[in-house]
Design a protein that fits this description.
14 helices; 22 strands; alpha/beta; Alpha-Beta Plaits; 463 residues; Rossmann fold; globular
């Protein structure tokens, strides 16, 4: 079990990772060149902060790198992240090293041989732009969702969706009653966000219009279950991407590959970049050079006739107001990239309900690799709430003691499904878990330690 972890970078991602792991009893040291960021994290949490360059040997020495089990490099600089991993390995023998790398040249397939003990000793390369593009592409393939995560080798999916229609089947229904109805076979309601508060529902919770819910569904039942929640939208055929940076380019390539009939427009502010993208993407994409906030340009891109706009520029405000204008012009749906959590409460008032958080996606990826062992998959639902995990059950687990209804599980732990011998069993009161099963569960951070005693100690960070 990792006891000492160094986090390089005290930005939103580094701070969130540090807070989460420190809350689990792990000794965390955070390095950053910004004294104010270091002061905040040092004063507000049980975390040691060091001002300095993460790639400098003397800084890592001050951070007691020789005693560290892991280094997580998430500064704003790819080069600093890479060198920090190299120094941590070469001089201090840090056992495991993770680095966030953004530049496509470092993460392209042809650079696959760059990372390894004989070259750059990075165990895990995290490419947030590619993962964000993957996340958005999954949403485009599953209309009506703001979050999509495949689990159990594709047999299950975690779907985040908004209950908008007050007349749809689920409004007013108790979750326990839904489970007993044949139409809802293959469904577990994992979380509810109501009036800004996230919680894990019990059998007596009634669903309301306006709720955001995370559903665990059998993949083959996805379309039928989404319809019962009021979503019958078709897969996007008309799409505008605002922003031709790494995310926009990754997404455009994925969309044109996966959705053969899609009509795609891409808006990029920089003329040279727009010409470069046009040359890369060819005739299937119409590339427009201009400001995504220019209403006349949005009209030229026929945003009002489009089904979806995806705003992924490097500026939160541009993404938000571009999405707002697109909705005003008649675009049915906007997917908006937003880094700052302070905007969270404002967005629904602007008609923006599908928000992509780069930091949440990166944090999920990092924690998935930190918590190896029995954890097969991990997804952060909200940075202040909890995670969905797929885990293997040991022979000595307390989960084997009886049916789920008879287990005194903490309120912050809900088991949504069990995988056994290639079969999926949804988590019902009479479900019994066996050694070797895989479970998919939601864990609230407020009950993390209690939940760990049920999931097994290997839910904790391992080396």
């Amino acid at each position: 079990m990792a006891k000492n972890i160094i986090v390089c970078g005290a930005g939103q991602v580094g701070t969130t990772i540090a807070r989460q792991l420190a809350g689990e009893g792990i000794n965390i040291t955070v390095i950053d060149t910004n004294p104010e960021l270091v002061r905040r994290i040092d004063e507000s949490h049980d975390i040691r902060g060091i001002v300095g360059h993460a790639s400098h040997p003397e800084t890592l020495r001050e951070a007691d790198a020789r005693d560290a089990d892991m280094l997580i490099a998430v500064t704003r600089s790819d080069e600093v992240n890479m060198v920090a991993c190299q120094v941590a390995w070469s001089l201090f023998g840090v056992k495991r090293r993770l680095a966030r790398l953004r530049h496509g040249g470092y993460t392209a397939r042809e650079a696959a041989g760059l990372f390894g003990p004989d070259h750059l000793p990075i165990d895990v390369v995290i490419s947030p732009e590619a993962e964000i593009a993957d996340s958005i592409a999954r949403q485009l393939r599953t209309p009506g969702t703001f979050d999509v995560l495949p689990l159990a080798t594709g047999r299950l999916e975690l779907l985040g969706t908004h209950i908008e229609d007050p007349e749809c089947r689920v409004v007013g229904e108790r979750i326990g009653d839904l489970a007993a109805q044949g139409d809802f076979e293959g469904l577990s309601v994992m979380t509810v966000v109501r009036h800004g508060r996230a919680f894990i529902p019990d059998a007596g919770t009634r669903l309301e219009a306006g709720d955001d819910v995370h559903l665990l569904v059998r993949s083959e039942r996805r379309q039928a279950l989404m319809a019962l929640f009021g979503h019958r939208e078709r897969i996007t055929r008309d799409l505008v991407i605002a922003g031709g940076g790494n995310i926009g380019l990754h997404l455009a390539r994925k969309v044109t590959t996966a959705l053969a009939s899609v009509r795609l427009h891409l808006i990029e502010h920089d003329r040279g970049r727009a010409q470069h993208i046009a040359g890369l993407l060819g005739d299937r994409v119409t590339v427009l050079n201009g400001d995504a906030l220019d209403r006349s340009l949005l009209e030229e891109a026929q945003v009002g006739r489009m089904e979806t706009l995806v705003a992924v520029t490097n500026d939160d405000e541009t993404n938000i107001f571009c999405s707002f204008q697109a909705r005003q012009l008649g675009c049915r749906r906007a997917i908006t990239l937003v880094n700052k959590r302070s905007y969270e409460s404002l967005l629904p008032q602007l008609g923006i309900t599908t928000v992509v958080s780069p930091s949440a996606i990166t944090v999920s990826t990092v924690l998935r690799h930190v918590r190896r062992g029995r954890i097969l998959a991990l997804h952060t639902l909200r940075e202040d709430f909890g995670e969905v995990v797929e885990a293997q059950v040991d022979a000595g687990s307390r989960l084997l003691a009886g049916p789920l209804a008879g287990l005194p599980l903490p309120a912050g732990l809900k088991i949504g499904a069990v995988l056994r011998d290639g079969r999926v069993l949804m988590g019902r009161p009479n479900t019994r878990i066996q050694a070797g099963d895989h479970i998919v569960a939601v864990v609230a951070y407020s009950d993390l330690r209690a939940a760990e005693s049920w999931l097994g100690s290997r839910h904790r960070a391992t080396t």
